[in-house]
Specification:
The protein has helices at 3-6, 18-26, 37-42, 56-59, 79-90, 102-111; strands at residues 14-15, 30-33, 49-50, 71-75, 96-101. By secondary structure, the protein is an alpha/beta fold.
């Protein structure tokens, strides 16, 4: 692959296990919920910031105060959090990871001390 072709590859945040995601949050990472407000109302993490993926292009600048912190994104299944993570990486946020889905994060947290 040529260097010019590599420059067109999308930036994809690393997908973490629930344990890895909670470890980062426990050590100061910022938990970002990119689900809808309706999904949030069905269950949420008190430590998470809600920023609906549908509104991200116009609201991502709200995260600039956290630009140099690790952002752990999650949604229902990990798909929207991957897309939002790619967007943030393309905007120069250096520390963005995909925490995956809410149910996996929730189950892990319920069974562990995080």
């Amino acid at each position: 692959m040529t260097a010019s072709a590599e420059s067109f590859l999308p930036l994809i945040p690393k997908l973490l296990s629930p344990e890895e995601a909670w470890e980062i949050v426990a050590n100061g990472g910022i938990l970002i919920d990119v689900r809808t407000p309706e999904e949030w109302a069905e269950g949420f993490f008190a430590e998470a910031i809600l920023l609906d993926a549908r509104e991200f292009p116009s609201r991502f600048e709200e995260l600039l105060i956290h630009k140099n912190e690790t952002l752990v994104l999650f949604c229902k299944s990990g798909v929207r959090s991957e897309k939002v993570g790619s967007f943030l990486l393309s905007k120069g946020f250096p520390l963005v990871v995909n925490g995956g889905g809410f149910s996996e994060l929730s189950a892990f947290k319920e069974n562990n001390s995080f």
